[in-house]
Specification:
Elements (H helix, E strand, L loop, with lengths): L34 E5 L3 E6 L10 E5 L28 E6 L4 E5 L6 E2 L5 E3 L13 E4 L4 E7 L4 E8 L3 E10 L7 E10 L5 E9 L10 E4 L3 E3 L3 E4 L6 E5 L8 E5 L14 E6 L31 E7 L6 E3 L4 E11 L15 E6 L3 E2 L2 E8 L3 E8 L5 E9 L2 E8 L6 E9 L2 E9 L1
């Protein structure tokens, strides 16, 4: 089991919402936060600038004016610097050099911005993030070599070069020609410059935030909805996942790619994916993914839905490093997008069934069974109740329309005991256990 590393605490009792530089009022001239944007009609990526104390490289994702959600709504957590908050340091990249036993944080400069009295008001984040035992944690800021837009203003490319070790490129790009095919692309490229074979790893860490809702609930096509921490190692059994502000699905959805190649996407399947705490209010920052430059914390199995959820991808995870010959490169890529409704995700090989989510109002019932569902298209549904022997004791068939709905099945005469409800719609199905009292 991975050992959890406790981080240094921030100001007593603070949360990430309260970590301000004095409400932006007393920063000395020239100390303001610097960012650079990647934009298209539907999305915007905010990246810390090379001249900022905390840059370059940390990132946040937002909707843009043409998005159905509306303008300036969070996909990753972000509060604009005009509010007095820091740069987008809630999400960041770590690159591990297994061979040299070092971990590099992309975007956290060991510096201190001063107020007009000379006191630090922007703390060095390197002092608050823990490296892995046996590895030296380094700030990549001194190795930065460039940052600029590309593809017009649709992308931001940031580069670092660590002499005798590696070159690093991070790209945040808003892709697509219409809302339906527009995606947020995240890419990190490592090139071995050591002159001999070397081993590396990448962790991309994302503080997901559904339009201001920090405790996103997680859904995947294999396991359905969840709110507790979980992680999956390669081969990850689903091609994509979705988070929403409500368990069972609300009015906003954020899609995260694992290995889905639809709409021209070219993801790099990660060696590990985690849905886990960013850090909670009882112990600010010190018990989640943010404060650990590399380690996972999902083994603690806490409820993060409704609290403070995040996701992380590892390429070259523990025991499966990326092995590169001299001048050989590795590219890790994933994608995100946001939607106002459940989506029927298609790829070139198969189209999943129409069921996007199914749950019961209660897992302990007396007089009726309330089934809440979300369909991505119209479907002929079959709902059955089965006892422990597999015998169907109640059945219902109904034509259902796309969207969210609820079915109520009277069960007053059903004997007390443990049962299974199976919801089938075309070729897709979900089975849920419940108790009749």
């Amino acid at each position: 089991m991975i050992t959890m590393i406790a981080c240094l605490s921030l100001l007593g009792g603070a949360t990430k919402y309260e970590y301000l530089h004095s409400e932006g009022i007393s920063l000395k001239p020239g100390a303001s936060v610097q960012t650079i944007s990647a934009t298209n009609t539907w999305y915007e990526g905010i990246v810390s600038d090379a001249v900022d104390c905390q840059g370059p490289g940390t990132y946040s994702f937002l909707t843009n004016a043409g998005h159905p959600w509306g303008d300036d709504l969070n996909i990753l957590f972000y509060v604009p610097p005009s509010s007095g908050y820091d740069s987008p340091w809630w999400s960041y990249t770590t690159v591990r050099d297994y061979t040299g036993a070092r971990e590099y944080i992309l975007g956290y400069n060991e510096c201190c911005e001063e107020d007009e009295w000379g006191d630090c008001v922007e703390w060095p984040m390197l002092d608050l993030v823990a490296g892995t035992p046996g590895y030296t944690l380094e700030d990549a800021y001194p190795y930065r070599t460039g940052q600029s837009n590309f593809n017009g203003t649709a992308g931001v490319r940031t580069t670092w070069s660590i002499s005798g070790v590696m070159d690093i490129v991070e790209e945040i790009e808003m892709t697509g020609t219409a809302f339906e095919n527009s995606r947020i692309r995240y890419t990190v490229i490592i090139t071995n410059r050591s002159g001999s074979q070397r081993q590396f790893g990448i962790r991309g860490f994302f503080d997901i935030n559904v339009a201001g809702n920090d405790g996103a609930y997680f859904w995947d096509p294999v396991n359905g909805w969840r709110q507790d921490e979980e992680a999956w190692n390669k081969p990850i059994p689903f091609k994509y996942y979705v988070v929403s502000e409500v368990y069972g699905g609300g009015i906003r959805y954020i899609y995260g790619n694992v290995s889905d190649s639809s709409y021209g996407m070219t993801p790099t399947p990660p060696d590990r994916l985690s849905y886990a705490y960013w850090g909670d209010y009882a112990e600010p920052f010190g018990n989640g993914l943010w404060c650990n430059a590399w380690l996972d914390c999902s083994q603690q199995n806490r409820n993060v839905g409704g609290t403070d959820a995040s996701v992380a991808y590892w390429w070259g995870y523990d025991g499966t490093p990326i092995i590169l010959d001299p001048n050989q490169s590795f590219t890790g890529t994933t994608y995100f997008f946001a939607s106002p409704q459940p989506l029927a995700i298609e790829d070139e090989n198969a189209q999943p069934g129409p069921v996007f989510g199914v749950r019961l109002r209660s897992s302990v019932v007396t007089e009726e069974l309330a089934v809440v569902y979300i369909l991505t298209r119209d479907a002929e549904a079959k709902i059955g109740v089965y006892d422990l022997s597999g015998r169907q004791v109640i059945g219902l068939e109904k034509s259902l329309k796309r969207g969210q709905g609820e079915l109520r099945m009277p069960i007053p005469d059903l004997p007390e005991g443990l049962y299974y409800m199976r919801f089938e719609a075309d070729c897709d199905a979900r089975t849920i256990r419940f108790v009749k009292q």
